[in-house]
Specification:
Helices cover about 55% and strands about 10% of the residues. The chain is an alpha/beta fold. It has 3 domains: about 130 residues, P-loop containing nucleotide triphosphate hydrolases (Rossmann fold, 3-Layer(aba) Sandwich); about 60 residues, Orthogonal Bundle (Helicase, Ruva Protein, domain 3); about 130 residues, Zinc Finger, Delta Prime, domain 3 (Up-down Bundle), CATH 1.20.272. The protein is globular, with a radius of gyration of 21 Å. This is DNA-directed DNA polymerase. Belongs to the DNA polymerase HolA subunit family.
Length: about 350
């Protein structure tokens, strides 16, 4: 069934136990992902168990089997499929016809055609649910930032909401990360609401000097070895920048992965770029187009895994942070040049 806008919050916060399959689709993939995260919380903070679309395509019974399995640790879990497309339609059909299901299945897709088999299933089957996300603009985007801030215990003025939305390039997931960071800094939560002030945004905001950290990862992904080595040489000694740089790089990889997957499913690069709308800052368009042409989906996944692994190593045990960071970024740059 299609989601009704007026009942969206209720559907996500208090999910219908009869629904087995949730499809979030549309041009605003960050918005879809954010809503899917809200659904996870509504499902009792269920653990996210990721199943790749290609695995379901190879064996359609996989989805029903995973959804029907009982958690080994007794907690709630949800099956998460991203990026999703018509390649999982047969698996979803099997899921919906199965006699029982222990876990809900959540699929996050980009834009789907009206003739999409997956979309048809989600919109017509009584045990399925779908929602389309459009890229918000203007006051709608400001309202979303204010609402997201309220969930973090922050009272956000319209002026600051506009600034945060602009710094996040219309990406709701990034805006939420920013607001969570502000809330942690101010000690805010839903039981202890605080006013978000301009000074906090000046110090910590994505449009501050911290945004420069994204540049280093972009140079590595673009294979710009000379400029990358120059930037690495400018980093302060002590390795304190390693984790912020790795997290910025992870955000870039997570943005690229679903876009590249759409291209490999047959969409044109220019169509994928256009679908991002204002979520993509105009100055970044040449870079993103280049990265999408250089990095296949499989290599993006490998890069994201490597970067996440390095972050965990740095956080959990002493490492020569600068050397480990530099080695990883140089390796990525060499891979891009190949």
């Amino acid at each position: 069934m299609k989601a009704v806008r007026t009942g969206l919050a209720k559907a996500l916060d208090r999910p219908d136990p009869a629904i087995r399959f949730y499809l979030f689709h549309g041009p605003d993939e960050a918005g879809s992902r954010s809503l899917a995260g809200q659904l996870l919380r509504g499902l009792g903070n269920a653990d996210k168990f990721v199943v790749l679309g290609q695995v379901i395509k190879s064996d359609p019974a996989t989805l029903a089997d995973e959804a029907g399995a009982i958690s080994l640790f007794g907690g709630k879990r949800a099956i998460w499929v991203e990026p999703a497309g018509d390649e999982i339609a047969e698996g979803v059909a099997a899921l919906l016809e199965a006699p029982a299901s222990e876990s809900s299945v959540i699929a996050v897709a980009g834009s789907l055609r009206k003739t999409s088999a997956l979309l048809k299933l989600a919109e017509t089957h009584p045990a399925a649910w779908s929602h389309i996300s459009y890229v918000p603009e203007g006051r709608d985007l400001e309202r979303i930032v204010i609402d997201l801030g309220r969930e973090q215990g922050l009272r956000v003025s319209p002026d600051l909401a506009r600034r945060i939305a602009s710094a996040a390039a219309g990406n709701q997931a990034i805006a939420l990360q920013e607001l969570a960071k502000f809330a942690l800094y101010l000690g805010a939560d839903t039981d202890n609401a605080r006013d978000l002030d301009p000074d906090t945004v000046d110090i910590l905001g994505a449009d501050s000097a911290e945004a420069d950290l994204m540049r280093i990862g972009d140079l590595a992904l673009a294979g710009r070895m000379d400029l990358l080595l120059d930037e690495l040489g400018r980093l302060p000694h002590g390795g304190s920048e390693a984790v912020p740089i790795l997290r910025a790089l992870q955000r870039r990889l997570l943005m690229l992965a679903p876009l590249r997957a759409r291209i490999e499913r047959g969409e044109r690069v220019d169509a994928v770029m256009t679908s991002m709308g204002k979520a993509l800052f105009w100055k970044d368009k040449p870079l993103i187009e280049r990265l999408l042409s250089v990095w296949p989906a499989e290599r993006l996944s490998e890069a994201a895994s490597r970067v996440a692994s390095l972050e965990r190593q740095i956080m959990l045990r002493p490492l020569a942070d600068e050397a480990a960071l530099g080695e990883t970024l140089v390796t990525l740059a060499r891979a891009a040049r190949r």
